[in-house]
Amino acid sequence: MTLLQLKYIVKIVECGSMNEASHALYVSQPALSSSVKELENELGIEIFTRSSQGIALTVDGAEFLTYARQVLDQADLLEERYKHAKPRKQLCQVSTQHYMFAVEAFVEMINSIKSDEYEFTIRETRTRDIINQVANMQSEIGILYLSDFNKDVIGKLLREKHLEFHPLFRAPLHVFISRNNPLAAKKIITMEDLKPYPFIQYEQGEEGSFYFYEEAVWPEYSPKQINVTDRATILNFIIGLNGYTVCTGIDNGDLNNEKIVTVPLDSDETMLVGWITNERAKLSKAAETYLEKLKSVVADHGYKLIN
Known about the structure:
Structural class: alpha/beta
Radius of gyration: 22 Å
Oligomer: single chain
């Protein structure tokens, strides 16, 4: 087993495919595949599963990746100490549902990092993709919510993929609406009040189901419904089409130019927002810093953290 092979494994996971990794490493794909196969034979484990859809880490592979990263970090420390080589880039990858506070914390994390080089990634994506990306070690942290409705299904999926859910805060439901909406002056809004307005929700793909929705409640029937994939679009539709969506209630005036307000929704349902991690992974310093900033941002918005 060599350090080069360990670097190959880490790069393949970071790129998500053997082909992209071979280009990034300037190694032919057959040579890269052969090196990985030799390592698997030497260790007596299967690191990747291979299919027509691509590759994915096995359970043994996820555990091996954790140790490989630790070995490479130690090797870099040796080089930095004795060869005066540059340290490895600060790395951190986060997958999240479409939360403003998650982005706000990411900005604060980057501003606090004292490093000449770094490479950070934040993905606002579908619920199932968040789970898969953390399971496959493409992201260190995933941010999503549990509710009375989805907790059994999501919880079972997390356990199957060896992921741990860490509660962050519990939020009563709110709606995002335009400041010009007639409902904006109300102290509390009912689903009946919202019937005349377009309901906007995040699209979850062909494999999506009610259990993966980002909205904890939705109208029984909505004659006007719009599915979107990104947060900027949903904010524009709320303003331009007088639509609404269900959310945690954490707002960020800098992001919506104070054209959108959050109003409490008349519902007994709540959202238990938290982060997920792979139980076999050890978080990087940058990821730990991100969690600190995440907690700070949530607390600054007036929400009580769950210890």
